[in-house]
Amino acid sequence: MANYKIVSHAGAGLPLNVATTTTISRRTNVNIWSDTGSNDQKWSITSLGTNQQVKSLNNLSYMLNANTSTWNCDVYTSNADTYINFILVSTGVYRLQLASDTTKYLTAEGTTSGSNVKWAALNNTTAQQWKITTVSTNDSGSSVATDADQLRKEFQKVGDYDGAYGLQCVDIVRWYVDTYTTLNSTSGHGKDLVANLANKYGLTISSTPKAPGIFSVAGGYHTWGCSGSTYGHTGVVVSVNTTKKTATVIHTGSSLADENPNSWKSDYSYPASGVTFVYLGNYMK
């Protein structure tokens, strides 16, 4: 699996884009748009072969989809109309054929920013040819993975990442691990995520933070943004000041469900009772 940018008109056009500035949801439209470098224009694909899903890096639960009542292209959760065949045209250039109806191909309806994208019959024009190139999750040479403000903007479009119980602290950590690292996130309460990820991949748990990484607060502790609940808390470590012994983190919770942005940026002192960390810097995409 790799991350890709998909550019219309055989690479002479604009990137394929999730057309939203808020939370991605079912039927969020897809268009082409000027290159922003954001995760709205980055797609996770297992391989450029047949019967593949093209998942948005903003939320991997949503992927390119055909609305078969209109043949518009949007994003949706996994179903029969989210599978695509990649047909090679020339080096790095493909047609995207809908696997559930092989008469339909991904088509840019225009050449300007905001032009819609639909599924249409083969027409042998460059409007149905897409240049696909691998990308990282870094923008303009700087690491988004440790940029708290940019991460908060990206997560604002995601929210309830795992689709369970609404917005919870675990959503931002699971999204971060799946989007910015080569690892797969683990389930569990906030108090469990550091231990569960470490146990799955043989990572070292520490009482000292290191960025990029994640933290967990054990249940019952009133520290690091935790209310003291039995479920604990979790979040992402984006920077550490070893002189002041402080860590900058981003985290979220149910009280932010209707807020913009739906995450906090906080500075905490360490070491702190009940708080553990795992470093992810060796596994970044």
Count of alpha/pi helices: 3
N- to C-terminal distance = 11 Å
Structural class: mainly beta
- What is the string of helix and strand elements? EEEEEEEEEEEEHHHEEEEEE
- Rg (C-alpha, Å): 20 Å
Quote the average pLDDT.
Answer: 94
Global geometry: elongated
Oligomerization status of the protein chains: single chain
The number of strands is: 18
Q: How are the strands of the biggest sheet laid out side by side?
A: 5-4-1-12-9-8
Give a short account of the largest sheet. Answer: 6 strands, antiparallel
**Proportion of residues in helical segments:** 10-25%
Blueprint of the fold:
Blueprint: E1 2-7, E2 16-18, E3 28-32, E4 43-45, E5 55-56, E6 63-67, E7 72-76, E8 84-90, E9 93-98, E10 105-108, E11 117-120, E12 130-134, H1 148-156, H2 169-180, H3 193-201, E13 205-206, E14 213-217, E15 233-241, E16 246-251, E17 264-269, E18 275-279
Could you characterize what this model shows?
The chain has helices at residues 148-156, 169-180, 193-201, and strands spanning 2-7, 16-18, 28-32, 43-45, 55-56, 63-67, 72-76, 84-90, 93-98, 105-108, 117-120, 130-134, 205-206, 213-217, 233-241, 246-251, 264-269, 275-279. The chain contains 3 helices and 18 strands. It is mainly beta. The protein starts with a strand and ends in a 6-residue tail after the last strand.
